[in-house]
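Deliverable D5.2: sample structural annotation.
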Amino acid sequence: MSVQDKIKAEVTGTDVVLFMKGTPQFPMCGFSGQVVQILDYLGVPYKGVNVLEDEAIRQGIKDYANWPTIPQLYVKGEFIGGCDIVREMFQSGELQQHMTDNGVPVKAPAKA
């Protein structure tokens, strides 16, 4: 199985996946930590994939999304974005709405 196949299996096998530096319990960079805080605040069930454990995954995820930075958030197989995009979507209520529209349970209500 190639690295790209492994990544595809991750993003399509779990509703919400965060490729990050560190783990949800112990983020290893501030940007990953911010996205974890947002997802935890929303109460969204998600899987964290620590790119620091595997250099092939770390580079492979950048190639997969054609996105140069980590963290990267995927919902139902769709690339959402990195920290700045996730934060902007959260602040506008768009992230919560996107989760709800895709059948992902959200604890915090979307802004009216």
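Annotation notes: Residues 3-99 form a domain with the Glutaredoxin fold (CATH 3.40.30.10). Strands lie at 16-20, 47-50, 72-75, 78-81.
The annotation will be released with the project's public dataset once the embargo ends.
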